[in-house]
Amino acid sequence: MIQATDLAKVYGAKTAVDGVTFTVQPGRVTGFLGPNGAGKSTTMRMIMGLDAPTRGTVTVNGSPYPKHRAPLREIGALLEARAVHPGRTAYSHLSALAATHGIPSQRVNEVIEMTGLGAVAKKKVKGFSLGMGQRLGIAAALLGDPQVVVLDEPVNGLDPEGVVWVRNLVKYLASEGRTVFLSSHLMSEMAQTADHLIVIGRGRILADAPIDDVISSQGKARTRLRTDRPEEFSRLLARSGVTIQAPEHEVLEVGGLDPRTIAQTALDHQILVYELTPLQASLEEAYMQLTKDDVEYRSHDASHHEEPPASSPSGALGTKAAHETQEATR
Ligand SMILES: Nc1ncnc2c1ncn2[C@@H]1O[C@H](COP(=O)(O)OP(=O)(O)OP(=O)(O)O)[C@@H](O)[C@H]1O
């Protein structure tokens, strides 16, 4: 278990972590999300005793990291920018680490096997791809067979097979009752991997809840439907609090109305509807909603997260923006 209490880190004028309190529980995968510069890496470094908190405490299984006699057996971590001597082989790197921490050399072979590094274990690390480097970092994290595992962006640089491997590995570690805490910018991956989420923005906790609760509390449920008269039907459905988008030909996505009301409206007006599907909000939508005020480095070209401009010909229903324009002029 990891417990942070009023944990803060200030670098000069910059407050990187602003008094966070959270618990990472064993037996489940906890995802750590936040925009660039939100304070994730700083928090993870404080957990690992690599940065001293300016205020507050963080403990691993009840004690601060530096107080553990055999820290590698307690907690294993993959953090950004791991220093591995490039002239060493994966095997010699892990063996040296094992020797310094009193870990039997047999364990080196086990983690090499677990992380799929068998074929390259005797090769020099300087020739490693990003993905192989990540696997080596994960091997080092698991070397002490720790109860707590902290992984900062573990799927960074991995190919699809590697991404699935990390997903299965962390789920397996959690199923064994270990505490697993991982960060990732890949929302779809996080959605498939984490049971619980801690979301941080500008050094503060924005959410700390089971992943399904985070999605349902932020995301807006919608219904997707197909009809051969989308423009007429959308006029019939339009009212205050209802959003309507037309992402494809003969397709509408309606927010703010339940499927039964939509079906009843279609029946009342004899409109053919040949698909009616409730849509789950995605983690990405929930995350964007949750962090919208806490993004430190906002790119000006965030177009893939914004509604496309109303580009449809006048009168035709193209986008939510187009629809709202129609509503406003009605
Ligand atoms: N050693 C340092 N000196 C000064 N400022 C720092 C230092 N380390 C981090 N910061 C600042 O603290 C803030 C939090 O950084 P941190 O690396 O923890 O964020 P992050 O959530 O891990 O971001 P990313 O997703 O980009 O990795 C940022 O504004 C960063 O510039």
TrEMBL record:
> Basic and acidic residues composition bias: which ranges?
296-308, 321-330
Which first-to-last residue range defines the signal peptide? Answer: none
Q: Where is this region: Disordered?
A: 296-330
Q: Which Gene3D superfamilies does the UniProt entry name for this protein? A: P-loop containing nucleotide triphosphate hydrolases
What keywords tag this UniProt record? ATP-binding, Nucleotide-binding, Transport
Q: Which InterPro entries match?
A: AAA+_ATPase (IPR003593), ABC_transporter-like_ATP-bd (IPR003439), P-loop_NTPase (IPR027417)
The ABC transporter domain is annotated at: 2-227
A Pfam family assignment: ABC_tran
What's the domain of life for this entry? Bacteria
Any one GO molecular-function label of the UniProt entry: ATP binding
Provide the family line.
Answer: Belongs to the ABC transporter superfamily.
Which PANTHER family does the UniProt entry name for this protein?
A: ABC TRANSPORTER, ATP-BINDING PROTEIN
Which named protein is this?
A: ABC transporter ATP-binding protein
User: What is the scientific name of the source organism?
Assistant: Sinomonas terrae
